[in-house]
Specification:
single chain; alpha/beta; Rossmann fold; 7-stranded parallel sheet; 19% strand; Nucleoside-diphosphate-sugar epimerase; Epimerase_deHydtase
Length: 287
Amino acid sequence: MSDAAVLIVGCGDIGMRVARLLQKSGARVTGLVRSSESAAALHAQGLDAQTIDLDSPTLTLPAADRVFWFAPPPTQGEHDPRLRRGLAALRSRLPRRFVYISTSGVYGDCDGRWIDEDEPLKPQSERGKRRLDAERALDEFGGQTRCEVVVLRVPGIYGPGRLPIERLRRQLPVVQESECPWTNRIHSEDLAAVALAAMDRGCAGAAYNVADGQPTTMTDYFSQSARLLGMPEPPRITLAEARMQLTPALLSFLEESKRLLTTRMHADLRVNLRYPNLAAGLRSCLE
């Protein structure tokens, strides 16, 4: 990707990691962020940064050969007008490749089954429905233009600076293991490497499950994190009790259970994950 013009829309934690990898290859990277504070953080890393309002009706985007779209949808509703506005802005100066981070929530609840990318998309939460709307917009965009679009369906992200320290400190309860649904996750460093591989080697029009391939449960994640941090493990409650005590946002994760197959990711993108399981990944967070 040497000397390519690369645009990272929504250049937060994952975007910064991708940008650092791109710097090593000699790419010209511009990160788009919402605030001047975020722009200053990018400048401190030697990156070109611009502040931008993705909700502006007159949105314009810098020209780039390759675009990573990491900006989230709006927090409400079932559509992503933010991405659709961005795609409209790109039509005048079309990028060659476009990588989008979606969510495994587009599959909805799969009763704990192992699923691949051919699983029907039936999101239950508004969060998942917004991402499905974005995927449909990208499918249409790729079909109407010469831009090659690659979608990454990503579950929970963990890594340095992302551990649930405050939740553990407050001793918020978790669902007892016997009732807890299957969840999947990926380390932030591995996600950045996969995003870069998707830009280089992903098949145009393809979607990829991105996970370490070792699903556990949310309760296991919080328990392992607590042990790692030397904090008390969270109290356990029943699923019925959780439905009365937890927020709707947390409950939406407990209503979905699936295990992600990542065969396509490994075959097409040829990535070797640094953190192939939760135990290895959590240890890295304190190094």
